[in-house]
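Dear all,

This email documents one entry for the complex benchmark we are building for the journal club exercise. For each entry we list the sequence lines for every component of the assembly. Then comes the predicted three-dimensional structure of the complex as a token string, followed by one or two observations. Please use this as the template for your own entries, and keep the labels exactly as they appear.
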Amino acid sequence: MAERKRTQVDDIDRSMYDFRYDDQDSEKLDAGLTPDIVREISERKDEPEWMLEHRLHSLEVYNSIEMSDWGPSIDGLDMDNIVTYVKPPTEQKSDWESVPDNIKDTFDRLGIPQAERSYLAGVGAQYDSELVYHSMQETAAKMGIVYSGIEEALHGEYADLIQEKFMTLIPPTDHKFAALHGAVWSGGSFVYVPKGVKLDYPLQSYFRLNAKGAGQFEHTLIIVEDDADLHFIEGCSAPKYNVANLHAGAVELFVGKRAHLRYSTIENWSKNMYNLNTKRCRCDEEGQIEWISGSFGSHVGYLYPMSILAGRKAQASFTGITFAGRGQNLDTGCKIVLGAPDTSASVETKGISKDGGIQTFRSSVVATPAAEGSRCTVSCQSLMLDNKSRSDTIPAMDIRCKNVDIGHEATIGRIGDDKIFYLMSRGVSEEDARTMIVNGFAEPISKELPLEYAVEMNNLIKLEMEGAIG
Amino acid sequence: MDTQAVVFERASAMPAPTWHFLKMNDTSIEVPENLAIDPRVSVSMPCSARGAEDEFEKALADAQEAWEDDHPELSDEERAELEAYRAAEADATYGGTAQSAYQMGADAIEESRSLAVAFEHGVGEEAAAYLRYAAGRRIVVKADVGKMIDAQVIVEAAPETLSVAAIDVVADADSTVNLSIVVDSPESSETSAEGAVSGVAGSTVRVFADDRSTVRITRVQTLDESFSDIDDMGLFANSGARIEVSQTVLGAQSANTGLATDLRGSGARLEIDTRYLGRNAQKRDFNYSVRHHGQKTESDLKANGVLADSCEKTLRGTIDLIRGAKGAQGSENEMVLLVDEGVRNKTVPVILCNEDDVAGNHGATIGHIRSEQLFYLASRGLSQQVAERMFSMAIIEQAAIDAVDDDSRASVIRFGERVEPGFAALFDEGA
């Protein structure tokens, strides 16, 4: 019998991300994790005393807690070999031309300056452990919006605000890699949107990890005051090496009353990356958080943006897609806390696994006793493109309140023969039918992305269909 | 002989754990000290259906041989190819394929090629072994080829007593077994101090359903609030076998239900219909694990319940669609009605899948009576409180209507009368 061909989906074309530059001019601290390394990072940044204490406390926590036992293995990650701080050979610039050529070329090739000119209100670019470029349009600055490096902001007029908020949503005790982040964090952005200010164009931070065997631990802190509106985009990539790299960033978002924040991420780390990132948002009364999340890269991923709906009628939505190919174990999803009356949340996710890749959707919905009148729907769909891969769905619901309405639905499977048959009966070729179905599967997510990112996502997936389903 | 205090810390664990902070991965089952091990079990079935003690083990061993014939080990060439693929994976990535502990564990079970290793108990091996020990002599129900057997087991709870039945069901090809289990505390006993358990009752059941056989198990539990209940099942279904399980959990301060199934043969089917009621400060814990090994196997889990007062309930339901189970379909659905502010409901419906030619789906709906339903009932003169009470009692009433025999109906009616005096009158003849 002739071999039946299966649905074929190409690996993501990573060639545009896999270039790299020599990091011999960068300053690196020793690999591993010790109090001396933590003190040195703090000293180099000329931080206030409270931050050094926070770092040392976090290190103690890191050493005292165990790694979780429920997720993908991180046995391939040896912290003794990870360099936690790599300073590129430049200070932060606000003028693109002043950035060193190789770094400038990196971001040019990733299309960052072009994006800034086309549709962004501000851009931050981090290279290894430090921000190398930060700028914002004058109009945004005149509206009172602050968009800067968080370390720079620690020495400015918002220092007290940062101290008040820093790692309160993600305490070091949250999990082992939150503690690690607290100890060695470096770089990242601070955004402050004053009351009533609505920014029509997005801000974007792009994180590039260039150094071999290094970790990136940027901290993003965004405060959107009452009645304000912001769209923030986060992109990340790294070249591929033959040793493990680590990303353990943290994102803390505070959304005020009636404010709105959309946080979009396209994560495209290389396949030697352990992406152990933590993101969390607190919404006050009638505040809204929208997460748009695409996870394509990394060898191992643990990523569950959390929405804490703390004010009455606060809302959250999470729209995510995860694509796991060969050698990848991506454990992604979200956490929702319905913590006040009449809150609402909706979760819609898609997962695709192929060529031995492992994709897990994991979620938790907790309705506290205060969540009277709240509702939440969770919908997740997984598509298996071959029988070497794995796709798991592990959603949890903890409901402690009577008057709530919680719904969950999930489906898992392959492309249905009936759908192919239907399309073919309408004159569509089998190959085109399959392509249409897979594109349609991802479409609810891609339509939520900014146009440029939707195009990037389509490039990333780059589907190539042939033969019959077998 | 009296019991020592025993706590099974990680009982009824779900195969794929999640965040520990949710406290949903497993439960602890406690047997207090100084209970007299005294199985108060009565059995009703034809003498011809009584099987030998090792009937289940023999049936599983025979199935192992047949399975090995149908599933030969990899040839040297295939094994070399597999090893080469794995070596390439380990080389090409960082830390191999980074499988989680449960993913590696699942692979190890498959690679053992042992039906005995793959056979699981819903409450976990340790707790099930303890129940078997406490039960003493095993009840073995054996249906020969093409026969139909009806069997009934009544487990009676008593204060200061651990009363457990261990039951093996072996259904030969084309046979049918209808098994009814009633777990009841007929003598009305005083409710003990809050949190204290005066006695433990339960059952542990193993089922071997051979080709094209049908096994129906109906379990009704109507214990007083001073007792706790442990309901353990481990099921095995061969080609074309059908297992139907109906569980009604009405009473007991603490009720632990665990069911694990190996749908091994092609076309095997499992249906689970669970109904439960939680009141006062009761605890309800359910753990279901359905492993689809065979092609075109099907499972359907339905759980419906009402939670009132300050009771807590957890349901872990796992459908595992294992590589090779082409054409398998797994479905689970839960509806929970929350009646009071103090209740706590935890649900984790899991689908694990490493075969593409399958369909798995799950759904859960958790909430209160809908406002339009309340409005309708109010327009008929029923207050919200009365309506909520009606929903709770409806679970008991339905259990009485659906009871498969007189004994289980009597125990449900007795239970209903304890919850709401006058309930029994609904079922008086001529009423």
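Observations: The longest helix of chain B spans residues 384-402. Chain B has a mean pLDDT of 91.
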